[in-house]
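Dear Dr. H.,

I hope your travels went smoothly. While you were away I took the liberty of generating a structure for the chain from your last submission, since the lab meeting agenda had it listed for discussion. I wanted you to have the full record in hand beforehand rather than looking at slides cold. The sequence, exactly as received, is reproduced here:
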Amino acid sequence: MASGAFEELQTGEFGPATFDLLRRLVHQVRRASGFPPPEGHTVWSDDAAYDVISAMLSQEGAGQRFVTVCFAQAADEASLERLFLTSIKNFLIDEAKKTPRGKLRRRIARLMNEDTAYRKSSGSPPRWALADHAEEAVWQGDLDDLIAQAARVTGVGITRWNHSGPTPKQTVHALKTILLCVLQYAQGAVREEDLAKVLEARFELLAPARFTALYADEGTVAELVDQHAATAAPDPTGVDGVAEDIWQRLSPNERLLLPYLDEDAHHAAQLLEIRQTHAVAVLSNLKTTLRTALSADSDPHAVIAALLRRCGDAPS
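The corresponding predicted structure, in token form, is as follows:
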């Protein structure tokens, strides 16, 4: 029996020793670089590693050839491991770039790379900090804290999200505003993957907007809707225009919470299927937006009623 993959491949066999080496190296690469598990897996496991290996071996135009090429260039077991390691890392990089989050990572990395206010830290996995942060400073906190901090930022939103071509100016401004706020809070370098997750949560970029027909509970809010509906007529005061302007500024999660403004964060977290710390920030941001928008001359009760009607009209 061969004592290692190199010896096994010398016999012309792709057997258990080679497969086990590839499995161990997949785990080594994903631990060092923070790659997400392959499609169909929520966490890394041996099964996930086997799926990566199977995908590498079944690549059109390459497939098992990468094993042969690595073996041909290797002089011993150690050099074979290094060659396999490079091949696995390159494969996982290519796969990550195909995912929606991978595309988001590339976009924000390009934006930060073009701006002297940001600095990319050396080493792997890729991390970003503000240029005036200490070189050795690294964020060691909880991702939920960064997500909550981003959710507290008001006055920015994304109304246009293109999947190719130049990023719209307003979108660039919104992304950079959140990145700046989060990195100032972190006071150190944050993993690029985590920054993408923060932006994904703040702007709900990677998932289609979820709309559910919501109905106000019994009480003041429901009465407002009924009263306004009963007296609805062409509106010379522009209430619908104000409501539409507010509606466009709200994220899908904020729209879902509109009929539940009096509920606590625990209820909001259950409704939105997110962590409670994130729900606290979403609820707070929604109330701040409404408070600011309703400080104008228009009738706040009528505007709220118009907004709640939009909740009921949204497609399920």
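Two observations you may find useful: The radius of gyration is 26 Å. The chain has a mean pLDDT of 79.

With kind regards,
E. W.
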